[in-house]
Amino acid sequence: MTPSPIAAFMASLFSYNGRTRLLDAGAGVGSLTSAFLDKASHEGIDVDVETWEIDNILGGYLKNTLDEYVRQGQGKIKAHIHAADFIEGAAFSIQFDCGNRYTHAILNPPYKKICASSKHRKLLRMVGIETVNLYTAFVALTMLLMEKGGEVVAIIPRSFCNGSYYRPFRNLILRISSIRQLHLFESRNLAFQDDDVLQENIIIHLVKGEPQGAVIVSTSHDARFSDYQQTTFDAAVIVKPNDIEQFIHIPTVIGQTSTPKLCTHTLRDIGLEVCTGPVVDFRLKAYWRDKPTDGTVPLLYPHHFSDGALCWPKSHKKPNALQLSSDVSKWLMPRGHYVLVKRFSTKEERRRLVAYHLSYEALDAAYIGFENHWNVFHIGKHGIDEDIAKGLATFLNSTILDEHFRVFSGHTQVNATDLRNMRYPSLEQLRKLGKRAKNQPNDQATLDRLLEELETA
Questions:
Q1: What's the pTM?
Q2: How do residues 165-221 score in pLDDT, each as one tens digit?
Q3: For residues 95 and 127, is the Cβ–Cβ distance under 8 A?
Q4: Distance between CA atoms of 27 and 271, rounded to whole angstroms?
Q5: How far apart are CA 1 and CA 418, in angstroms?
Q6: Distance of CA 143 to the CA centre of its chain
Q7: Phi, psi dihedral angles at 455 (to 5 degrees)
Q8: All domains of the chain in start order, with CATH
Q9: Quick one: DSSP state of residue 5?
Q10: Strand order in 338-342's β-sheet?
Q11: Using CA of residue 439, residue 419, residue 457, residue 384, what is the dihedral sign?
């Protein structure tokens, strides 16, 4: 079910030499295997194919596809389908060293969260894999099943590149393999036109046991690859030396990974904190109120802001307030100056980082509820200095920071962990920026000019 141009591109990334043993886990109808076999046949290479597909209907189509290649291959192609659970089979093979090793693997793995108490999670832990999603589980197992020098090409969501949940997966992959190439699609929607694509997908080419060298980063607008471009980067640009998180940065042009000059301090350095909005609304549904009344507190969602301005209360399917009670009060923050950053954004939006300064005067309430779709900058669950809050919001909304953020974040969420791992101007610089931003227009050109003036001051 991978579009044929993408499958052909993925197959083109491999080296083809000598007898080949190919793995396609989650093979579907065989689109990726077909592209690989077309390329291998052109190169005159013999191939033993092992595919895994647990869905009986898809498996029927897969069998028809492979049977035709075996027939046409006249002995040069052998194929076997495992109509079974790949995680179970791979974990067994690795744990008991059954000798099943592959020279090549081509993957479009399933994308689904793995429950912490599930059988899959336990099987993965038995072979030293700690991960939270099926797609990373499939890639990790595949890498452990490869021969030294074995190549893996996979199309997967970009979400593994950063965030604490995927750190064990990054550690494993970067320890036992090298990244040879990363391919980005500039449009999430046009690469998989028939699907509701929520994640930004990338194609990654890994080589097991190969020392990490320079990395090719390529781009195309969509699956036609008509505007294909590539640039080569030093490994230290992709994964920063001494970065304990081992975030994977994906620049597209030379110089794009350079950190903005003002980004010199951690949040801890400047005494600020950031957290996910504490109010998980469905858990407090009994306390929802459409309109604010006596005994309620404001509940803020991202839809309450438009063009940088607060619009509360607002007619919406979600509530505007919560009835104050002991169950509610522990999730609230006192009135003050806060900076709010939307958790969900996409690469097609004008900015990935969208920040708002909520001023003390904006709401006449002793306490405020920040819904879970926010990241909230605060100090000890209280507000921060007005000028610093204004300066921080201006900094976060700047074009230069947005471009820098896109290099290491391609998934649909802006997590509090991402914001904690960023670098910020000093407290004094934020205060100066906030003072200069007062009474200034809120357009992008003005925000960028203010930041540029602060950089050159």
A1: 0.76
A2: 899 999 999 999 999 999 998 764 544 444 444 568 899 999 999 999 999 999 998
A3: yes
A4: 50
A5: 33
A6: 20
A7: -65, -35
A8: 4-238 (3.40.50.150), 267-456 (3.90.220.20)
A9: H
A10: 273-276, 374-378, 338-342, 355-358
A11: positive
